[in-house]
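B., you asked whether I could sanity-check this one before it goes into the benchmark set. Here's the sequence:
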Amino acid sequence: MVSAGATSNKCRQSLGNGFTRIDVRPVSGTLGAEILGVDLNQADEETIEQIHRAFLRYHVIFFRDQSLSIDSHKDFARRFGTLNIHPQYVPLRGHPEVLSVTKEPLDIHNVGGLWHSDLTFLERPPMGSILYALEVPDWGGDTQFANQALAYESLTEACQNLLSGLRALHSDRGLSERKEAQKRNATRSLKIAESAMDQPPVASLHPIVRTHPQTGRKSLFVNRAFTIHFEDMTEEESRPLLNFLYEHAVKPEFTCRFRWKKHSIAMWDNRCVQHYALNDYSGKRRHMHRVTVDGDKPF
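And here's what the prediction gave me:
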């Protein structure tokens, strides 16, 4: 397992070094890289260390032509931390750590069809997720990713100073309220569990500007899916600035776009990346498995 505390100094020192075990090819000028020359079933510790270093440098990394069983998918994810069990969605039968992210041909909506970071309502939101494609349409269903460190760094110094020290409430209320959950379940194959409905919302206060625990880089940490309002402010009072940040955070110049193929993998850093699964493949099936790695408390 790559522990945040144990590897922090090492990663800071080695981010500028080359890679000897993997072939790293950036996919854009802002974030994202394809990793070639590795079979994730056979990756040794040095290879995992270099994958982790590429992950920290590029924020989202992609692999092609992998052959992972459910167990090997989980084993690979465990090299980076403990595995998350989603508090709302029904998991894959017999594998509580795995979500079957599937859109059937007759489904109207997909899961993740808006810009967001995963599970930010938790006190310790995920470190990241590893999504593995089992079946993809011939076209459509791409995923976009947005670099939240670059989004923060592009703000004026006055705006950065304004955001410094501010916190916002993140909540899962759109997933836990029965009426909203049932509405979602009616149009999506990945279901919210009955047991998760009518539960008190899970909510956490997090800084608007988050410091990455391993690189020390600052990034925006708000998203439309779960951020509700600023601390000690109403939703109405918070809305203008939050709306500005939502739009700013996903400007095209901060993004990359990944075209899926069967047996491709995307692994993104949830601490400094937002993502958006495009729903542009009506009548086609898209079937993936997602494993998510636990994270730490934002600071």
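One thing to flag: The radius of gyration is 19 Å. Otherwise nothing jumped out at me.
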